[in-house]
Amino acid sequence: MLRALALGVVSAAAACTSSTQRPVNKASAPADVAPMRTRFIEDDYAGALAEARASRLPLLIDAWASWCHTCLSMRSYVFSDPALGSFARRFVWLSLDTEREQNAQAVLRLGVKDLPTLFVVDPSTEGTTFAWAGSLTARELTTMLDVVLRADDRSNEVAVLRQRGDLASAKGDLFGAIAAYRLCLDKAPPAWPERPIIVDALVSRLSDAQRWGECAALGAEAAPSLPPGTPLADVVRAAIHCVQQLPVDATQRILGGALASVGARVSTDLTQPILADDRSDLYDYVVGELKALGQIDQARRLAGDWASFLEDRAAQAPSPSARAVFDAHRLAAYAALGQPERALPMLEKSAADFPTDYNPPARLGAALYAMGKYDEAIAALTRALGLAYGPRKLRLWSLEADAFQAKGSPDDARNALRDALDFAKRVPLTGSYPKLRDALERRLAEMQ
Fold it and tell me: What angle do CA 330, 333, 337 make, to 5 degrees?
């Protein structure tokens, strides 16, 4: 359970207001925000849309949240890259904190399901013309943005099919996207440079559509021949996830071993041109699959490599906020080793560095809960709830209820769930939060 808590409960840092750099929301972000070559408008969809219309430029939206380690990785290590400078005046750039109530209507309009997601919106129609969930290196992102800007070229059949898939994906038409991407790959020459990113998109859409067998089979077939880069890591992760959703007696479960082998090779190969956050995600999935396969010793050795890698990257981080990007995964790696106590010093450091950020005390509560220190966990979660905002608070109350229940205080556990459900009535619930609210309602009913 700690993996879900470590990755789902929180992370550090954020942004707000606009100038020549990406500005900071003082209530939720560190003070050492790196200068941005692109100018982000912060949490003002209407203002950004008006600017895009006036300038006749497409609107590029970064949908993110402060608990999302991958969002923060993009902010610290990608959006600050000078390579994006050539695109600074070719889009209007908007950053939307999906947890803030003021952004709820825009988040609903966009149909945000995963974080981070990059959207491109046609300002004349407000229609989404492109969406990409997940992260990319700066080099990969510049290539993708160039493709987006060339999307009006109808002379290339393969490019048109890719655009059709991208549009269907952006609208949430999973089956349309799957069909278009399959046809695109069939028509494209074997050496087409965009093939890896389309394989990535197809495997991801198959996963979203819960076509677990097709997703696992395509991922296992494609991964060995994909070139180094983010698509390779994405395909392996998504395919492992799909394998893990299959029934235990499904014949395709056997694909997990081959995928774990490729994933272990990629995650430990430091020459792979992928973000440290993506490498860590891959470690996480491979360790989980090795455990599922009963290869406990191998999983533990890889978890040790994972923890060492993250400690090294955190030590090399150029700023405290860049270092805190790795807090969530370091907690997950230590949990995989059965040593959650190793996370305490880094989380206490982040809590001291960012005293108004709810993520460090929330993760501290998760670590203390895993250690069986329930009173201390509850105290940390109380601090986190005092700082938190938006529907993410539901997850904090849920963990608080876990801690109360574990220490033998069922009345307090029920009260924590009631607090969560009362709060859920007062704030817009976007994305997966309605399902979380329903789950909390069922849990409270079972405890009555």
Answer: 135
